[in-house]
Specification:
single chain, 504 residues, mainly beta, 5-stranded antiparallel beta sheet, 3 helices, 29 strands, 4% helix, globular, binds 2-acetamido-2-deoxy-beta-D-glucopyranose, signal
């Protein structure tokens, strides 16, 4: 095995010389670079794989599943050891629980999972058992989700609505209309997707039903709600709200294509949320016209004293398959002002429609030259940004650039993983929905970062337990994690949650 430093310096030489990377199978040799605004972004390859078995149960007694819907590093936990390993705590967030046979009364929650990362950069293929040691994961604890008065949240489809109301102590403005599970006691219905872990222990959580953004306390209690503009709310023909995800609204977010992406620029306290694909009026009712999605920005610098104002809104053109269908976006991550990573993909892989995924990437997009449409006529659903998928001529969309493929055959083979048949535990899962960035802290490569991603296994286990009741989903799909090493030359301080006072 070559030393990491040697391989990385070879990559640097290769890039300086402008040579095209030779296909070979070590992490560094797989480096692929893209140029954006004069800077070079490099994918240095897969460096770790981790797994939590499909039947693992958390402290509540339920199956630990769906955890790749959102991940974030717990603030201040990232540590580099003298021996070159890294450790920390991930906050992992499942969505609305096991719902293959309809939604259930699953209380929203967040899990703390400790990890030790031992990056592997060699070219020899590790056995599947040894591959799992490169990202060793240890479940620690679970925080359940509640409303202010200790009422549990629910994963049930929100057929009911709680009217807007005010008067909560410590809440600076009235709560907007909220999606409710129509149970005997009405519970706030949450289909959680994106997560941001704040330095004070609170969380921003994005949801697909509203689609809303919630501020949640360290103890799991709801603190505040952000309601997006009317163009994004699910409205009926008569312009009434209906949050159900069983049918598409007439305008607003597509059912199950809500705020999948959520990320924070911590230095300016700007929170960004992105819809998985276009709203219905923007072409979202068909995969062939749904690529023009919206990214929203909120100023969350004073969430305790005022409702966060909308401060920006841009159109992001998602990638297309060779059949012209949208590769919807499951997560975003802030990199530097105007620049983001985007996890866009098809729905194939283990437990998907097909074993073979054709597109699963961490791409880059840049909004610095895109039109800011917030507060314009486009926030009214009567004025689509892309009628039938044709972008309005007055709008310039973000610049979307292909970057890192998660399904590179040679990279996966180094960890005994694969894409395409056979359908077995070494096949990568279909649904990857999370991104988290942490610094490598390598003085030779100060702009190198680890990019973590985890998959949502939809709680699929033959020995499952949901809200205390056993279930058999007919298959066992483990919770899989991947870690890549990347060079992001423009990274700014707000993009990475730091540990021990390092300088980024
Ligand atoms: C909790 O508050 C919600 C309104 O926010 C209300 O619908 C519900 O009935 C309350 N539950 C209890 C147990 O007080
Ligand atoms: C929303 O629509 C669903 C199904 O179309 C219906 O059952 C439900 O009653 C509606 N909810 C409201 C609040 O109108
Ligand atoms: C996936 O591969 C398995 C073989 O391992 C095959 O039996 C199955 O039909 C394939 N699934 C699809 C959807 O093609």
């Amino acid at each position: 095995m070559h030393s990491v430093a040697r391989l990385l310096s070879l990559v640097a030489l290769c890039i300086q010389a402008g040579a095209s990377p030779t296909p070979a199978s070590s992490a560094a040799a797989a480096a692929v670079s893209v140029k954006l605004n004069g800077l070079t972004y490099i994918n240095k390859g897969l460096v770790a794989f981790g797994l939590i078995p499909s039947d693992f149960r958390e402290s509540i007694g339920d199956t630990l599943g769906g955890i790749g819907s959102g991940i974030a590093f717990k603030f201040g936990t990232w540590l580099k050891s003298a021996s070159g390993t890294y450790s920390g705590t991930l906050i992992a967030q499942p969505d609305r629980g096991f719902n293959v046979d309809g939604t259930t009364d699953y209380q929203s929650r967040r899990h703390e999972i400790d990890f030790v990362l031992t990056p592997y950069t060699g070219s020899a293929a590790l056995s599947f058992a040894d591959a799992q040691k490169t990202l060793a994961l240890t479940y620690k604890s679970t925080i359940l989700g509640f409303e202010r008065n200790n009422t549990k949240t629910s994963g049930l489809d929100p057929l009911a609505i709680r009217p807007a109301q005010s008067g909560f102590p410590g809440v600076p403005a009235a709560d907007p209309e909220l999606p409710l599970a129509a149970t005997s006691e009405p519970h706030l219905a949450v289909d959680a997707e994106g997560i941001v872990a704040n330095s004070d222990g609170t969380f921003w959580v994005s949801d697909e039903y509203g689609p809303y953004i919630y501020l949640v306390g360290a103890d799991g209690h709801l603190i505040q709600t952000i309601q997006p503009p009317r163009a994004i709310l699910p409205l009926t023909k008569k312009g009434a709200l209906n949050f159900t995800a069983q049918v598409n609204p007439k305008t607003g977010r597509n059912a199950n294509q809500g705020f999948e992406g959520l990320t924070l620029d911590a230095s300016t306290q700007t929170l960004y949320a992105m819809l998985q694909s276009a709203t219905i009026q923007d072409g979202g009712d068909d995969k062939s016209t749904s690529r023009f999605t919206r990214l929203l920005a909120y100023d969350v610098s004073a969430p305790a004293t005022r409702r966060p104002p909308l401060v920006g809104e841009w159109v992001v053109p998602l990638p297309l398959s060779d059949k012209g269908n949208t590769q919807a976006c499951s997560e975003i991550h802030f990199v530097s002002p105007g620049l983001f990573l985007a996890l866009s993909r098809d729905g194939d892989g283990r437990s998907g429609d097909d074993n073979n995924s054709k597109y699963r990437q961490a791409d880059l997009f840049d909004i610095s030259k895109a039109t800011d449409i917030h507060g314009t006529k486009f926030d009214d659903p009567a004025n689509p940004i892309a009628d039938d998928g044709d972008l309005d001529k007055s709008i310039k969309a973000a610049n979307y650039v292909s970057f890192l493929s998660m399904i590179d055959k040679d990279q996966l083979a180094r960890f005994s993983l694969h894409n395409g048949k056979p359908d077995d535990p070494t096949l990568l899962n279909a649904k990857w929905e999370s991104l988290a960035l942490a610094p490598v802290d390598d003085p030779a490569f100060p702009n190198d970062f680890f990019l973590f991603t985890a998959s949502d296994n939809d709680f699929i286990s033959t020995k499952g337990v949901a809200s205390g009741k056993p279930f058999n989903a007919g298959a066992d799909i483990d919770n899989q994690f991947l870690v890549f090493r990347v060079t992001l030359p423009s990274v700014s301080p707000g993009s990475v949650h730091r540990t021990i006072g390092a300088q980024l």
